[in-house]
Amino acid sequence: MESFFIEHFGISSEQFRWFVLPAMIFLARVSDVSIATVRIMFVMNGKRKIATFLGFFESLIWLLAIGQIFQYINNPISYVAYAGGYATGTFVGMLIEGKLAVGMLIVRAILPELNPSLLTALSNEGFGYTLVDARGSRGNVKILFSVVERKRLPRFIERLRHYHPKAFYTVEQVRAAQEGIFPTAATTGSPVVNILRGLTKRK
Fold first, then answer.
1. Residues 43, 51 contacting (CB under 8 angstroms)
2. What DSSP element (H or E) covers 80?
3. For residue 31, what are the domain limits?
4. Integer CA distances (angstroms), 203 to 22, 57, 95, 99, 199, in order
5. Which residue, 61, 81, 107, 153, could crosslink 26 as a Cys pair with Cβ 3.0–4.6 Å?
6. Does residue 156 sit in the same domain as residue 79?
7. Are 68 and 123 contained in the same domain?
8. pLDDT tens per residue, range 107-146
């Protein structure tokens, strides 16, 4: 690789080792760690095919990066680039994961007094819910359960807090969901198509 850059770009061996190589290692680490972060998201959501596909490229890029480090093991800048790429890749991966917002979540809201307008608002926006009576430490309450798409969670919470500003609620990840009531804009089809569709809408 060093000879390729020297012959085609006219750089010196020192320039390659101290500038080009660390930059390549840094970018490789950013790429493979970002992929790893996204892959874990798909694993947690049971998307085995996509997780396997991403795992292949994650390992391939990592091998290329670590191979260059061992080839120039006496270059300390390569180690800095490796660590810096890992840290940056974690950050970038989290940004990507947040943008994709793949998966389902279950929201549990405990309401001392129910505002019927909340149920109307949720129904109008296509959110399904289950309402049960319960008893808390301070008296009778209502518990509202709803399974929502992760990308729709902010909207759900917005409606909940609009009608119940002091509502106590918890959110947990759902590995799988079948049937149920979801907004008409809910994703259908393969995860890859849904991801591309989501990215297009955000442009």
1. yes
2. helix 76-100
3. 2-100
4. 32, 26, 15, 11, 7
5. 81
6. no
7. no
8. 999 999 899 999 999 999 989 999 999 998 888 999 999 9
